[in-house]
C-alpha cells in the first residue's frame, strides 16, 4: 500500500482491513494478478493485470493493465518498463490478442514512457497488439 502512494498525488491509502479484503477479492478474481518488482528486499514497482474473456476475435481474450507504479526514488531506471513487459508476456502466454491500458496523465514524459514501452496512442487510450 505504501508503493501506491507514489501512483498519484491524490491517491490516499486504504486502512489495512479494507486493503486486505480487497486484495483477497482481487486474488480470487479469475484472470487477475498483481506483478511486483523488487530490488533487494524493497518493493519498487508494480502493476495489476486482468485477463478478460472475449466472445470475439475467435475467443481470444484481451488484457487490461492498471495501477502501473514505480517508487519515486527508483523512477527512470527501467522498472516500470520491466513491469509492462512482464504483464505483456503474461498476457501473450494466456493467448491474449492485445494488452490495453489507459492513463489520465497528460504529462509528455508519462505518455512517452508508455509509447517507449511499445504501447500505441489510440483515441484516448493505449493498446499493444500482438
Automatic annotation (TrEMBL):
Sequence intervals crossing the membrane: none
Top-level division of the source organism's lineage: Bacteria
Domain N-acetyltransferase: 1-130
Gene3D superfamilies assigned to the protein according to its UniProt record, in alphabetical order: 3.40.630.30
GO molecular function: N-acetyltransferase activity
Keywords: Transferase
InterPro entries for the chain: Acyl_CoA_acyltransferase, GNAT_dom, GNPNAT1-like
CDD domains (UniProt xref): NAT_SF
One protein family per Pfam: Acetyltransf_1
Protein name: Putative acetyltransferase
Species this chain originates from: Falsiruegeria litorea R37
Lineage of the organism: Bacteria, Pseudomonadati, Pseudomonadota, Alphaproteobacteria, Rhodobacterales
